[in-house]
Amino acid sequence: MSQMTVRNIPSVQYEALKQVAAENNRSAEAEVRLAIAHLVQHKTGEGFGSKLKAKYRGVIGGGFQFERSKDVSEPMVFE
What we know:
There is one protein chain. This protein has helices at residues 11-23, 28-40, 48-55. The protein has 79 residues and is mainly alpha-helical. The radius of gyration is 19 Å and the shape is extended.
C-alpha cells in the first residue's frame, strides 16, 4: 500500500474531520481513507456498469457500452 503525508490542513478543518471520524467510530486517518475511496470510486472502474460488463463479457459482445442516464428523476414516495 502507498502512503501519503498531507500538510497544512487548516485547524478548523482538521478538528471537523476528527469530529466526523469520532461520530463514525473511526480514526481521522480511516475517515480520510474512506473519503478518498468515495472520491475516486468512479475512476477505478469499480462501478455498477463495469461489474455488469465483467460478468457478461462474451455474452453481450465487447462493443456494448453502458451509459448513465443524465435525466433527473423524482424520488419514490412510500405512503
